[in-house]
């Protein structure tokens, strides 16, 4: 549990945010010491006994405007979370008045900007395309993995976006039983760190419909890093260009794979702010 002696009023504030229904608890530790443990993250993540989230994000002082650390709902960590990064970037831009930010993560340096019309864009960095970077368990071509899935789908494409991704292009993503399909491949032996799983199909030119199973979380309404990975995979396979619209269960993101990295643009929402009680924290 957090060190309650580091702030005499025992306050442990948080913000609830979402990007297209991909929801987050955000803890700002820039001005007070607030420790997140795996047990605490799991407790907060519980949608009946806690607050509920797909990821928890911790904001700390960094070499840029802030440093971000991400936790999955099962208490494990992730080096990247695209929608959470956009939500926090919007919060920090509103707070500071800056139109652009430099954020640091375990993924590396990320740059965010106000995209206008209430939208926020984040450069998620260059995709990792080599098997060792993703990582995979052994040397292989990442464009089409030797994984049997279903008669209507070719082998999936592996992509790293600071976290591993496995993208299946199917005839109709709506028809995939994702709650059964996702965990089957999250734990596939080719992925030693587990993987996020996407199922996607083409709606039209440079237009993709995608659904997501996130490692350590489950089915989510959206995923920023998954959207980036799917856009990269589609472009590598010649299915689309490098700038695409991706429709998720929770809404739409726009992905642009440029020379300087993969830019993701979309809306964000700060739903409410609150403070955890000492009784809740002591129960974990």
Can you give me a brief rundown of this structure?
By secondary structure, this protein is of the alpha+beta class. The chain contains 5 helices and 17 strands.
Characterization of the model:
It contains 5 helices and 17 strands. 18% of the residues lie in helices and 38% in strands. The protein has helices at residues 38-45, 82-96, 178-186, 224-236, 278-282; strands spanning 12-19, 22-28, 55-60, 66-72, 77-78, 100-105, 108-116, 119-123, 157-160, 164-169, 196-204, 207-214, 218-220, 243-248, 251-258, 261-267, 269-276. The longest helix is centred in the N-terminal third of the chain and has 15 residues, at 82-96. With 284 residues, it is an alpha+beta fold. It folds into 2 domains: 4-124 and 268-282, Diaminopimelate Epimerase, Chain A, domain 1 (Roll), CATH 3.10.310.10; 157-259, Roll (Diaminopimelate Epimerase, Chain A, domain 1). The protein starts with 11 loop residues before the first strand and ends with a helix. The protein has a 17-stranded mixed beta sheet that branches.
């Amino acid at each position: 549990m957090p060190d309650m002696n580091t702030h005499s009023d025992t306050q442990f504030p948080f913000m609830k945010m979402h990007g297209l229904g991909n929801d987050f608890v955000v803890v700002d530790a820039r001005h007070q010491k607030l420790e997140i443990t795996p047990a605490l993250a799991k407790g907060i993540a519980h949608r009946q006994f806690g607050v509920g989230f797909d990821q928890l994000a911790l904001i700390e002082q960094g070499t840029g405007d802030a440093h971000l650390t991400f936790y999955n709902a099962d208490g494990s960590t992730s080096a990247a979370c695209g929608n959470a990064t956009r939500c926090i970037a919007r919060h920090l831009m509103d707070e500071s008045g800056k139109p652009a930010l430099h954020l640091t993560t375990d993924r590396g340096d990320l740059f965010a900007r106000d995209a206008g019309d209430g939208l926020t864009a984040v450069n998620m960095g260059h995709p990792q395309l080599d098997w060792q970077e993703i990582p995979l368990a052994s040397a292989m071509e990442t464009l089409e993995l030797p994984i049997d899935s279903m008669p209507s789908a070719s082998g999936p494409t592996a992509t790293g976006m600071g976290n591993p991704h496995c993208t299946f292009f199917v005839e109709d993503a709506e028809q995939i039983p994702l709650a059964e399909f996702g965990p089957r491949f999250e734990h596939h032996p080719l992925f030693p760190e587990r993987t996020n799983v996407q199922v996607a199909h083409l709606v039209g030119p440079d237009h993709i419909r995608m659904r997501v199973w996130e490692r350590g979380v489950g089915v989510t309404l959206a995923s920023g890093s998954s959207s980036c990975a799917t856009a990269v995979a589609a472009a590598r396979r010649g299915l689309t260009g490098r700038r695409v619209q991706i429709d998720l269960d929770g809404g739409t993101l726009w992905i642009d794979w440029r020379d300087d990295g993969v830019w993701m643009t979309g809306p964000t929402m700060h739903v409410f702010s609150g403070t955890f009680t000492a009784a809740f924290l002591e129960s974990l």
